[in-house]
Amino acid sequence: MEHLGLPDLAWLRKVIAERALTRGDYVLSGGAHSDYYIDKFRLFSDPHVLRRIARLFTPIIAEVNPDLVAGTELGGVVIATAVSQLSGLPLLAVRKKPKAYGAFANEYVEGPYESGQHVLLLEDVVTNGHELLAASARLRELGLQVTPYAVVSRGLAPVRALIAFSLPRDTPQTHN
C-alpha cells in the first residue's frame, strides 16, 4: 500500500499472524469456506494494538479529507471509534439491520450527519465486501459521499484496505 511504510505493513501482518490467525475449516460471514480465520477482536481488545492500527489511517484521512468517519457493525464500529478519537472526526455507526426500537426505529445509521458530507467508511476484515458495500449504499441513500476502506482484505473484495492478507493453502479450495 502506497500510504504505509514497510515497517507498518510488516508489523500489521506480524500482529495478525501472532494474535488473530487460526487455521482450520471455517465458514465466513458471506458463506465462503476458508482454511484460516482472522479474529479481529484478539487485536482490537488490546488498546495499544487498536491505537496503532487506528494511526495507520492517518495518511488515508489526509488524502480523503472526510467530514465524518463511520464503521460497519460490529468490528468496523470498533476501529472507526478509535480512528474518530485520534482524528477528532465525528463518528457514525452503520447497522446491518435497522434498529427496531427507540426514537429512531427503522434506521440503519446512528449519529448526526448532513447530506453532502464526505464519509470515510471503515470495516475490519472483508472477504467479498458485501456488508461494506451495503453499508456504503445505505450512506449514499442519505446523500452522503462515501469512501469505503478496510483494515484487512482477504483478496476477494473490490475494496481498498491497509493490507491484503492470504495464506498458501495445502490444497486448493474451490467451493464458495
In short:
By secondary structure, the chain is α/β, with parallel strands linked by helices. The protein contains 6 helices and 8 strands; from the N terminus they run αββαααβαβββαββ. The protein has helices spanning 6-20, 41-44, 47-55, 58-64, 75-87, 130-141, and strands at residues 21-27, 33-38, 68-72, 91-94, 109-110, 118-126, 145-153, 161-164.
Task: Write up what this structure looks like.
The structure is a single chain. By secondary structure, this protein is an alpha/beta fold. The chain has one domain: Rossmann fold. 34% of the residues lie in helices and 26% in strands. Strand 6 (118-126), helix 6 and strand 7 form a beta-alpha-beta unit. The model is unreliable at 171-176 (pLDDT under 50).
Q: Using the alpha-carbon principal axes, give the shape.
A: globular
Counting helices, strands and paired strands, the structural category is alpha/beta
Classify the helix fraction into a percent range.
Answer: 25-40%
Domains counted in the coordinates: how many? Answer: 1
Oligomer: single chain
CATH fold node name:
Rossmann fold
SSE topology:
Elements: H1 6-20, E1 21-27, E2 33-38, H2 41-44, H3 47-55, H4 58-64, E3 68-72, H5 75-87, E4 91-94, E5 109-110, E6 118-126, H6 130-141, E7 145-153, E8 161-164
